[in-house]
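Good morning N.,

You mentioned wanting to compare the apo and holo forms, so I went ahead and generated the holo version with flavin-adenine dinucleotide. This is what I fed in:
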Amino acid sequence: MWDVVIVGAGPAGLSAGIACAQHGLKAKIVDEFIRPGGRLLGQLHEEPNGTWWNGLEEGKQLQEQAIRLGVDLECGVSVHDATNTDQGWRMETSHGPIESPALLLATGAAETAIPIHGWTLPGVMSIGAAQVMTNVQRVKVGSRGVVVGINILSIAIMRELQLAGIPIDRMVLPARNLLTMDAGNPEKVMKSMMHAAHLAPSFLIRMGSKMMKSEALQKLALRFLPDQGIHLWDIPIQLNTAALSIIGENQVEGVKIAKVTAKGEPIAGTETIIPADFVCIAGGLQPLVELAAVAGCTLTYLPELGGHVPLHNERMQTTVKGLYVAGNITGIESAKIAMAQGTVAGLSIADDFGMLPDQDLLHTSINKVESVRQTAAIQFHPDIQQGRSIMSGLFEQHGIGV
Ligand SMILES: Cc1cc2nc3c(=O)[nH]c(=O)nc-3n(C[C@H](O)[C@H](O)[C@H](O)COP(=O)(O)OP(=O)(O)OC[C@H]3O[C@@H](n4cnc5c(N)ncnc54)[C@H](O)[C@@H]3O)c2cc1C
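and this is what came out, ligand included:
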């Protein structure tokens, strides 16, 4: 009944559904969340040109366009298996099986957990959960919070919480250990934060960050960081401080922190406890690839893209015929790139069905992914370009199976 089933109604899946429907394909999108939009639903940030990115509004427009074009959009449906049969794909879902000749996985990303002693106490949540509660469910997560983990996502969400009137006391690093690795290393975090400089509200910080491209200058800056940290929107970002544990009897009551060396080693005698009634843990994002794995797609590990990713080409085809991917499942990038990739995937599917009369459309949309990437306000991984070119080399060697 359907030409293509799309798993995930985030920016990638919705854009793909629109492109498919515009070229005469019958597309069905399923999503396990109760509303379409994916991670767009929680996003609100200022672009470098001073305009605001309102994810909720963007998601609404995509949803309306998809529905106008006749895309069948079903929420509250979880897909847990995909098998390649003689007729195409058979997906097992929480609402029974669905079949289609083509399958697009646009499942997005998941947060990486960072275990910290005391993290099971009520009041501890992932930074993404704080974003959803604040911007989607409109629940106040607490009155005095500490964010553990300094990265571009936690800074963006810290700002969203602040705009919603939720006080954040400070942002600190997680204690460095085998699991936290680079996230607990001030030098590495400082380097990655250079890519977030344009988000800074102060002209001086933005300029200072531009001058700090050199690693030597970054190391020097770490030595002379003020004890209170650098203030962003009046919130201290403490690159020289780590959270050792979360304290509380029946719920979060505080966080035990300590100063750390430039390599992230705690400095004995500097421990102190700061009061808090909620803690957000921010360990970064990783592509959500389980369905691609069960569908038989070859995966590879590319830290530049955020972790394990399905092998795919610039047309969003995978190593399995009739299986496509788009958005964060292919590597962690921002929503605008997910939308551009979704359009490519939709056009690519239409082409494989022989429904794309104008090849230029596909080529232009492939080029657009690159141009959106060049100007992206939020770039999660500094070496994303390198990751993308490694991927294209790997795919060329592998090719599409039968
Ligand atoms: C917690 C979190 C916060 C983020 N915040 C920001 C931000 O503030 N700014 C920013 O630019 N980027 C943010 N991102 C990155 C974000 O993923 C991209 O901006 C963009 O939303 C990716 O689009 P996508 O369509 O690939 O995936 P998503 O928007 O994540 O959409 C994927 C959809 O797939 C659905 N899905 C997944 N698995 C299944 C399944 N098995 N069955 C059915 N449905 C399924 C999910 O419910 C989801 O709706 C965030 C990501 C996360 C995880």
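The radius of gyration is 22 Å.

Happy to go through it together on a call whenever suits you.

Best,
F.
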